[in-house]
Amino acid sequence: MNGLAEALRSFAVTRWVSRKSRPAFERWQAAALRRWLDRDLPLAPFYGKAPHHLGELPVTDKALLMANFERFNIGGVSARDAWAAASADGRLGDLTVGASTGTSGNRGLFVISEVEKYRWLGTILAKAVPDLLWRGMRVAVILPQNTGLYDSARKSRRIDLRFFDLTLGPEHWRAALQDFAPTVIIAPPKVLRYFAAAGFRLSPERVFSAAETLDPVDRPVIEAFFRLPLDQIYMATEG
């Protein structure tokens, strides 16, 4: 499997779709949903067969998903095995396993294939930094836990991605972060605000708040420090 080719394909499709008119997009969306209902959904044991319409699916919540985790993922991975893998190297055979940071207060799990991992990479790049990709990027990801999702980005010659472990505390890696001089920063809002208060020497071209809910009082402080608009990235493991 050529991962970077899959990422580029996903990048191109996402950019192409974003340029469609509303009626054209809705036609494309309806066709994509139909394929998903017919082809992909039946592979998950919880659902069994393809419904005629999306509205026919049962309403679920995180508690139900976690209690029946092995029936919701195609690989049949149990929540117990997934938590163990997520706490180790994030690998379970050919699958990547990870956990959410728990913005809602309850952490969730995800299990994805190599193809899905690169597809995610292409999509997120197309939505977040399409203008920076061709010039190359230095991306600093500052989170309490690393995830295999970002490993795909490290294999691109245009992206230099480094993870900074939030559990160690900012002063542990402040010098390394400043020397890295990231062009893109992804971090929780409280960390971005700390950078402002502590006067970190950083001049990124794009800043993203992630993992935690952004308090409206923090936005102007962060934007004034970086002299940039603050964007947000959130990923739901249930998706």
| Computed Rg | 19 Å
Order of helices and strands: HHHHHEEEHHEHEHEHEHE
Strand arrangement across the biggest beta sheet: 5-4-6-7-8
Give the overall shape, derived from the CA principal axes: globular
What is the percent of helical residues? 40-55%
* Low-confidence segments: none
Q: Main sheet?
A: 5 strands, parallel
Question: Approximately what portion of the residues adopt beta-strand conformation?
Answer: 15-25%
Beta-strand segment tally = 8
Give me the secondary-structure category.
alpha/beta
Q: What distance lies between the first and last C-alpha atoms, to the nearest angstrom?
A: 23 Å
Task: Quote the average pLDDT.
Answer: 86
| Total of domains | 2
Q: What is the helix tally?
A: 11
Organism: Mesorhizobium amorphae CCNWGS0123
Protein name: Coenzyme F390 synthetase
Describe the protein's architecture and organization.
With 239 residues, the protein is an alpha/beta fold. The protein has two domains: 3-115, no CATH class; 128-233, 3-Layer(aba) Sandwich (Rossmann fold), CATH 3.40.50.980. It has eleven helices and eight strands. It has a five-stranded parallel beta sheet with strand order 5-4-6-7-8. It has a three-stranded antiparallel beta sheet with strand order 1-2-3. Strand 6, helix 10 and strand 7 (206-210) form a beta-alpha-beta unit. Helix 1 (3-18) packs across helix 6 and helix 10 packs across helix 11. The mean pLDDT is 86.
